[in-house]
Amino acid sequence: MPTGYRLAAAGCLVLSLASAQPPVLREGPITTFGVTVVDPFGLRGEIYLLPPGTDELPKFEKLKSIGAIYTSALNIPPRDFLEGFPGITDRFEWFAIDYTGRFYIDNPGKYRFLLGSDDGSKLYIDNKKVIDNDGIHPIQYEEASMTLKGGIHSIRISYFQGPRTGIALVLGVARPGEDWRAFSTDEFRPPRNPADWKYGDPNNLPGTEPAGRRKK
User: Fold this and answer.
1) Cα separation of 23 and 9, whole Å?
2) 3-class DSSP state for residue 12?
3) 144 in a structural domain
4) 1 found inside a domain
5) Closest Cα to residue 53, out of 135, 151, 163, 211?
6) Per-residue pLDDT tens for 94-145?
7) Count of structural domains within the chain
8) CB 81 within 8 A of CB 166
9) Contacts of 138 (CB under 8 A, 6+ apart)
10) Which of 3, 8, 71, 190 sits CB 3.0–4.6 Å from 143 for a disulfide?
11) How far is CA 11 from CA 21, 27, 179, 203, in A?
């Protein structure tokens, strides 16, 4: 079973190895998996039930979603999870969530991404798998970087929870020349007026059908 922590820019994160506390992003509120209220500018998470014994992310195209939740950020530190998903299911183990959305880049360059989870997770951007943090494991962090051009990009975060109650799901980002912070779609929205778009074409946006879904 993977152990330990893989950290980038450790000076920008707070970590106490002695007490096994996860890194905390300098900015961004603590969040939940999401709510059932639709957020057209946020991440849409499709929820799936998994058979006991699942030890990796499933092939979502073979499953049927039981409902959807919405959130603008994923900053869920390690904690016990017993409440399930009100209005959808009371399942607190053996489930998966497949989040998809879009974000706008107004400062092209090299962006760093940090994905932490308990249990497995993967990050895709523009149909490319950027981080693979899959499998059954305690809180574990993986980091990668990607050069992004200006304009709209698609994003997907796939996550699954195995046995019992411990959960965690954290997505962080560091813009070019900046420190780590919680990734939030609220901070990556395009200008309201399409005429103000410096990059990209508002009439030709990428789809939000789960990026990379069939590219395992």
Assistant:
1) 11
2) helix
3) yes
4) no
5) 163
6) 999 999 999 999 999 999 999 999 999 999 999 999 999 999 999 999 999 9
7) 1
8) yes
9) 1, 3, 78, 118, 166
10) 8
11) 15, 14, 9, 41
Query: What's the token pair of residue 121?
Result: 């997770």
- Please give the sequence-ordered ranges of beta strands (E in DSSP) within 51-108, or none if there are none: 67-71, 75-80, 95-105
Round to whole Å and give the CA distance between 22 and 141: 9
Asked whether the predicted pLDDT for residue 4 surpasses 50, the reply is: no
Contact 24, 12 (CB under 8 A): no
Position 22 in a domain: no
8-state DSSP, 61: G
CA 200 to CA 191: how far, in whole Å? 11
Backbone torsions φ then ψ of 103, nearest 5 degrees: -145, 155
pTM, two decimal places: 0.85
Q: Which domain holds residue 74?
A: 27-196
What CATH number is attached to the domain comprising 68? 2.60.120.1560
Structure token digits, residue 41: 């500018």
Domain assignment present for residue 48? The answer is yes
Q: Which two tokens stand for residue 168?
A: 């965690």
**Tokens linked to 65:** 């979603």
